[in-house]
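Hi X.,

You mentioned you wanted examples for the new student's onboarding notes, showing what a folding record looks like when two proteins sit in one file. Here is a clean example. The first protein comes first, with its sequence line followed by its structure tokens.
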Amino acid sequence: MGSLPETVDFRLLNTLEQMKKLIIVISIIFSVLDANGQFIDNVNLYSGISISKVDWTIFGNNIDTSPSVGYSTGFKIGFLNEKCYSLNSKIGMNQISIVQKVPFLDINGNIVDYSTDRYDFNYLTLNISARIKLLRNNFEPFVSVGSRIDYLVSYTKFRDKVRKIDYGMGFGLGLNYFLKTNVILSVEFGYEIRVNEISENIIPNNNFLVEFGFGFKINNNDQ
């Protein structure tokens, strides 16, 4: 029998298998907690962009990088919902990217042009936040603050040793629109404070999120 291609990354396959188990466990926990139909209020699928910028130094020299756009996708769960506040949890994938500007020099050492090189870091992200909200005529503006933890699932090109775990705070400002009794359209602008560096020489300058969602309200009991 032929051998597996050299490009198979068994560490990534193992990580993805662990992610599947984690999602199953989380789903079971929420199912048990929601057995009486009172705990979970809504589920929202979201997708959007993550805008990041990092400080990168090599041997004390600053590497020229520019802000880059990655993805942010997953689902959000609202629970313990009250009239003016609720708790929310997010489970998804978030990408932090580094775009390096590489100069081209002529024979005299003068910069004549630039090219770019991109490094992507893909994180499984979990967070829980408190949300203050106000419902008026199907529109529900809200602000949120909470904590988050990220686990590095995969990355491209980068050869230095990287940290697997990151954690920090998250802040959000958004709007829900109730299209029907149980259908929710949403938009949220977020700002995340990251505590850990990506590697010894790369420090993230936090990142901004823009996320659009489509969800369903599960618990229609009046507050």
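Then the second protein repeats the pattern, sequence line and then tokens:
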Amino acid sequence: MKNLYFQRTFGRSNLIVDILVGILIAVASYPNLLLSVFIRNNFGERRFNIVSAITVFVILSLPIVIYFIESRIPEELIWPLSFLGLFNLTFLYFAWKRNRETPYHLTQYDFTKFSLYSGESTVNWSRFPFLKSWAEEPTKREILAEPLLFFVPGLIMCFTPVTIFVGVVLVISSLPYGGSHWAAYRVSREVILEKNDERICNEDMARIFI
């Protein structure tokens, strides 16, 4: 009993990994929202927030607004900024659709639904044979398949002048998207293992003191 208590109380921890997990979860909210509206629907009411979606839209529109205010848009940036604006409007449209699917009432509650539900995948993975095997397992789908669905096209767009801005957005967003899901699964595993260790220690205490 004493040995079990000591091991549980003074367990090992990886400081670098713990810091990385905290950073990934903290910074991934907007990138996750940006990508998930395109590939998921029927979110829980606390998982999707239209105000956050509008905030993402405003952030992505800042380069366009700044150049518009200055009234001096370089000729080589006209088409890249126009394509970015089109992407922003597309994102806003999908966010509007997700908002319509997510009922929210300030004074009413639906206790039959999980409010943090991450939504249902709308991707037909049979169209992506190279990702299909990963997509069959929920953890690999969220950590690898879904972010790669944006990372690869985004990387290709980075080498095309017209789409370079959107490509950078997709590449940058896909990294914390996959990383944050890995972090979430790791935290979840740690919580489950902690509860199991607590159960074992409690059973051991019961055998000794009862």
